[in-house]
Prior knowledge:
By secondary structure, chain A is mostly helical.
Amino acid sequence: MTGFAALYIVLLAAITGYGIIARAPDGLHTPLVSAAGFVNAMVLAGAMAVLGDASTTVERIIGFAGVFAATYSAVGGYVVTDRLLELFKASGGRN
Amino acid sequence: MDFRTFLVGLCYFLAAVLVLVGLRRMSARRTARGGIAWAGWGMVVATLVTFFRPGMAATNLALVGAAMATGGALALLWARKAAATSLPGMIALHGGLGAGAAGAIGAARLLAGSEPGLGPTFLAALGGLVGSVACAGSLVAFARMNGWIKGPLRFKARNQAGAAVLLLAVIVGLMLPGDYPGHTAMVVVFFVLALAGGVVFTVPVSGSSMPVVIAFYSVLTGGAVAVQGFVLGNDAMVIAGTVAAAGAALLTSRIAEPLGRSVASAVFGTHDDSTAGEDRAATR
Lengths: 95, 284
């Protein structure tokens, strides 16, 4: 993706993200902040690529830290979102 | 494009679709409970296919596996046994670590000096700056929510001080392109300033404003992830980061509204817990 096409795609993705959240009831706000954090954990793919391509020790150390942090974010984000959604369901899905 | 590159790209597309469907399901009352599983499968697809992307050096695969195993195991242990009341704070921890990963990508690319031109160097630095601010800010928020740091810590001209630190970071960032003696030290100074900026902006935040600020840092993290997606040519990161940033932006204002304060007053630590806004939040 390069140039203006990339800019248009970012615009459309932003509208999509906004539209997806727009109709959510109040009770889902906290689980959805957690879910947004989980979606951000897609950064793991990038961190893996950086560590995978690393050729120096410094790159490997930083890449390792990046993959560690991103995996922690993904797994932790999944578990916490799952637990918050369970609490939402247990509350009868009100609000 | 060879067949392998095509297949990897197709799998990233599938991953993005699964994550979007999952997020859509999570935001509707009836389908919310199962939505995370859809997004989770998207993440599994994206992770697995990355092992097969062209360019992954076989010698580094063990390191990738070790980092994922330790990070995943620790996260699983702590997130599962955490008390339900501490879950909102855990959101900040996980968000902050995701932001840190975006910062680390920037650091690795800048230190390697592998960027072919001014544009990618600028983007790697931008993603690194925003990711580092969100990382430090989220981790401070997490520590505050756990009571490890008492707050709010307020001092005169704190926002001016924060702005000055970030401005310095930007100036150092503009000097990053190129290969010259002391370049490594400049990269280090750049990231230290960015992290310091995140800390300075988060310590004055009032306790009741934390949920707003945590959602706000998700916006920054999403932006950093999208930018690093452009740097690395990973379209799934661009889509995931942008969608999450836009969604989190809406959530930030939706969370601030019933608390009776503006997003700016929450983020810049000008809201005081002893004022009427706090009482309204408490009686809600």
